Amino acid sequence: MAKSALSFVCQNCGAAYNRWQGKCESCGEWNTLSEEDTTGATTMPVSIRSKRKGRKFVLESLTGKSHEAPRLASGMAELDRVTGGGFVRGSVLLVGGDPGIGKSTLLTQATSLMARAGHRAVYISGEEAVAQVRLRAERLGLADAPVQLAAETSVEDIVSTLSEGAVPRLIVIDSIQTMWTDTVESAPGTVTQVRASAQALIRFAKKSGAAIILVGHVTKDGQIAGPRVVEHMVDAVLSFEGEGSQQFRILRAVKNRFGPTDEIGVFEMTGLGLREVSNPSELFLSERDLGSPGTAVFAGIEGTRPVLVELQALVAPTSLGTPRRAVVGWDPSRLSMVLAVLEAHCGVKLSGHDVYLNVAGGLRIQEPAADLAAAAALVSSLVNAPLPTDAVYFGEISLSGAVRPVAQTSARLKEAAKLGFGRAVLPESARGETGGDAGMALNSVGGLTSLVADIAARGTPKRNQDGNREGASVEKNATPARFRRENG
């Protein structure tokens, strides 16, 4: 009989130690080690292990016909866009997101649509009772969908039940942290249980051909909780993002073996569930404040979809020794770089000002093409000069102050022209990639200095709380010496 082997496993990264310690040396987290029983095949003596010889298998060449994996449409165009065209048979997807963001609502709608289409869809909840899932379905108007429900946490019971009858086309497990298996002696939610439960469900999916969606908890940093090995085991990892105060939700593919990893799906949270947004640009710009200084429209690309979003900047004099730098929806490192380039190469003094930058609508921008739009919004707010309401901005700023070209210029311009924009500020070297069919006036800039000079020439002095115009001190800090305007 094998001797019980106890070890201390980190619940954040899965690293194992022989004794308890306060800090995990692998991930650096504190108080994440818990005692678990790791008795199993790895502790079995060599003398009683299987002595069978390995079987031979056929090696194939790279050349040959490869059949595209059959897909099953979910009935939600935005979800199919992120997955690459639908669910692949035998695939396993991991969906993560903040609590209350709408993961269960999204999956309830997806399973209901597939069940209405005649496919067998199963929804297994480990956190809610069947009555609670039914209440959500009634609120969404999906109570008549023939979805099979269950409230179960034992992986062996789930696999045994789903193996009978017709093979389900879609199985939702909500969530993987509540599942447990008899093969390991650990509490549900621990690293060992999560890994073993996910492995058993993945094995069932590959054997039966059913598509399985695993719901995963996230940490305070927004990362999917549990060992990272689970993310390597599944075929796709989807992240459901959004701000609690905003009605927009973004479904983003972090990993996808059967499709692109840079596509996004946009949803709007309503009283009847999640509504698909086919034209996110029009929705993000619906409440735009025209003629206000510090706002610029950025023409971005998310996957193959062009998205127009408004960047809002506020530059105000600070009373603190160290000015604040706050950004929402963009990389803070990119903001620091743009501020440094503006001060080093364009003479824009921002060391005595607080800087706030926000991406309207709750969208998170990841591409560096937003540098030019962010710089235009910052300078516009500093010198109190509204930008043209019919202009879009895109371009990457280098450390030397030059504006570098970005990809898919033609797609950005076409989307802007479709929404009624008449001009575009873009890198000078990108004029040859416009395609000539956008019908927009193009203002190409080779360096950031020319754009700052153009915006500063339209600036007007701000007024203080007493209604008087701010004096030369603000004007001196607001614009470089070669861009100053005469007052009066």
Automatic annotation (TrEMBL):
Lon-protease-like: annotated segments: 354-488
GO molecular function, one term: zinc ion binding
Biological process per Gene Ontology, one example term: recombinational repair
Sequence motif RadA KNRFG motif, location on chain: 255-259
Residues of the RecA family profile domain: 68-218
Free-text note regarding domains: The middle region has homology to RecA with ATPase motifs including the RadA KNRFG motif, while the C-terminus is homologous to Lon protease.
Name by which UniProt lists this protein: DNA repair protein RadA
Native source organism of the sequence: Bradyrhizobium lablabi
